[in-house]
TrEMBL record:
Name assigned to this protein: Signal peptidase complex subunit 1
Matches recorded under Pfam families: SPC12 (PF06645)
Record's signal peptide: none
Region (Disordered): 69-91
Species annotation: Carya illinoinensis (Pecan)
One of the protein's GO biological processes: signal peptide processing
Membrane topology summary: Multi-pass membrane protein
Family: Belongs to the SPCS1 family.
Length: 91
């Protein structure tokens, strides 16, 4: 999953959970059944999980371009400079 795919998955999760919460509350309020409300919301959570957790192809529309190993060898990682003398800590 690429970065844009992660953002899309999170947005889908938030939208779907909110939509199922509203539908569950309205249905539970109209029918007067707390059990119906919880059941509808639980189904919504399961469906949201099935949509957002697996790595579906539409989450991979913007793949990252990695540097191939031969190109990486041409540009070595910069080394951190180590100072020869350390200054004593002042009290």
């Amino acid at each position: 999953m690429d970065w844009q795919g992660q953002k899309l998955a999170e947005q889908l999760m938030q939208i779907l959970l909110l939509a199922f919460a509203v539908v569950a509350f309205a249905t539970g309020y109209i029918s007067g059944s707390f059990q119906m409300m919880v059941l509808i919301y639980a189904v919504g959570v399961v469906l949201t999980t099935l949509v957002t957790v697996p790595n579906w192809p539409f989450f991979n529309r913007h793949p990252l371009k990695w540097l191939d190993p031969s190109e990486a060898e041409k540009h070595p990682k910069p080394q951190e400079a180590v100072s020869a003398k350390k200054k004593p800590a002042k009290k």
